Amino acid sequence: MSVAVLGAGAFGTALAVALARDGDPVRLWARDAGQVRAMAETRENAERLPGVTLPDSVEPVSDLAHAAEADCLLLSVPMQSLSDFLKATPDLWRGKRLVACCKGVDLATGLGPSGLIAAAAPDAVPALLSGPSFAVDIANGLPTALTLASADETAARAMQERLSTAVLRLYRSTDMAGVELGGALKNVIAIACGMAIGAGLGESARAALMTRGYAEILRLAMARGAQRETLAGLSGLGDLVLTCTSEKSRNYAYGLRLGQAGKAETLATTEGIATARAVSTLAAREGLEMPITTAIAAVLDGSVTVEQAADGLLTRPLRPE
Ligand SMILES: NC(=O)C1=CN([C@@H]2O[C@H](COP(=O)(O)OP(=O)(O)OC[C@H]3O[C@@H](n4cnc5c(N)ncnc54)[C@H](OP(=O)(O)O)[C@@H]3O)[C@@H](O)[C@H]2O)C=CC1
Ligand SMILES: O=C(CO)COP(=O)(O)O
Known about the structure:
oxidoreductase; NAD; alpha/beta; phospholipid metabolism; 8-stranded mixed beta sheet; binds 1,3-dihydroxyacetonephosphate
């Protein structure tokens, strides 16, 4: 099964490096022809993943159709770009295995990556790759375990086999809803945890946010038909733990700055921002109780301060756990 990575950000580049390390050819597509030339010449993605050498078997390409000749395409563009990206060239996706590597909920439609793939590429096999993994760790060959999900069990087995390496260990799942919602919502909870630490509320408060955040993720995911065990796995709890406890996470680091200063610039792709908005809207519409996500969305739109959000969570009625 031939593989290409579409999107040469930090994560796409790291995946291309990991999958090409044993000499297997991997095309790495970027939309910017200048960036592709520079990667081909210097064997580095200096802008997004500096200091990592691209193996000879990574072929940077700017021709999307050329990259999309591969059987299995790893979609590594940010979540809010995915819909337009897929819709622009529908013919390229026919019969392909499309593995979404982005984490989030689309603001315009409320769909996750698998829903966007189903809408834009109905003849493709949708799949998800998600779990605790910083791009830089994968690129440096550090051990990492992720979940590969596809509703098609046979396709999931084949992709699990092809995309696993000696240090990149993939578990498989058919629970698309569970895998994509765990990955999407952990980013919102990571912003909340960063905010708590930045505002000086302490590590006990962070542990409470992680735990109650997990309850919130579970509530939405179960309402979408996900399995509880999936949320307890790598793409749920695993990624929640990593992202809520490391300053290497862009979502956590953004929350930290917000908690410290009361406002923050987005310095990098921070998927939890749009996802907080998308999920708080759909939670309100569907009557789902998601107080942390709703509070984060309110801080982000400027309608409450970090302190008011914390007070709001602390003064909720007492109830059984
Ligand atoms: N970084 C990480 O550690 C991890 C990231 N992820 C997920 O991977 C996804 C991508 O993140 P990451 O690689 O870190 O992001 P980056 O910010 O590093 O890069 C984003 C990339 O997407 C490209 N891009 C943006 N919009 C479009 C578009 N419309 N069409 C084509 N390409 C586009 C950008 O190109 P350009 O430079 O031209 O703007 C850039 O190459 C996110 O959903 C993230 O949650 C998952 C696990 C780990
Ligand atoms: O998804 C990630 C780790 O699994 C990366 O998190 P950030 O997008 O917050 O950096």
